[in-house]
Amino acid sequence: MAKNKKDDIIQAAYVLFLEHGYDNSSIKLIAEQAGVSQGLIYNFFESKERLFDAVLSMAQDSFQSKMIAVAKEYADASPEEYIERYADVILENREEANFIISSALAPKLRQRAEPLLKEYSSSIMQTIAPLFPGVHDELLYNIGSLLLALSDSLLIDGDKERAVRTGVFAVKMFIHYLNFSE
After folding, report:
1. For 28-62, how does the pLDDT look when each residue is reduced to its tens digit (9 = 90+)?
2. 145 and 76 together in one domain
């Protein structure tokens, strides 16, 4: 288990939310999984929603830091190399990515997840900006949206080769558009 009880609770909730979904993961079940009392959970989190917020934030921070590391490492690489590595990170962290994206799709959880996804989109824009020098924010946003769509596709079917081909094609179209519009 984790270093302290709060971390144990967050980790147990993450596992249960991932396996059973939000609605089917009761505080009682989370307490049993974490080896703590329900009351202790409420000492740290005023509600299941606040616990979910902490779990989602933990997953988001972890996943976002991995994506930012890739963007920094591949800042001088070709867009093709970047997309290839981006796809690898999605597949290597499939559970985490799926948790984040599926949280944004659940109607009950969408409003809780949207701010984190907006933050994630902004960080993608900032991290891919060096790959596309001189590209204005609106186009960077579209490239970021493409990367999120590739994430969804990879999470659904795991077909990295197709996702990379599609991503490279789209990026080449963006670059062509940039060259054409200058």
Report:
1. 999 999 999 999 999 999 999 899 989 988 888 88
2. yes
CATH number at residue 28: 1.10.10.60
Report the distance separating Cα 5 and Cα 49, nearest Å: 18
The answer to whether residue 77 sits within a structural domain is yes
pLDDT tens digit sequence for 68-86: 888 788 878 887 888 888 8
Domain that holds residue 116: 58-181
Task: Name the residue type at position 97.
Answer: A
Q: What angle do CA 66, 69, 74 make, to 5 degrees?
A: 130
Q: b/e string for 56-71 if b means 16 or more Cβ within 10 A?
A: bebbbeebbebbeebb
Tell me the whole-structure pTM to 2 decimals: 0.72
Any domain includes 6: yes
Say if residue 63 is in the same domain as residue 41. Answer: no
65, 115 Cβ separation under 8 angstroms: no
Determine the pLDDT at residue 1: 45
Whether 136 and 83 share a structural domain: yes
163 vs 179: CA distance, rounded Å = 24
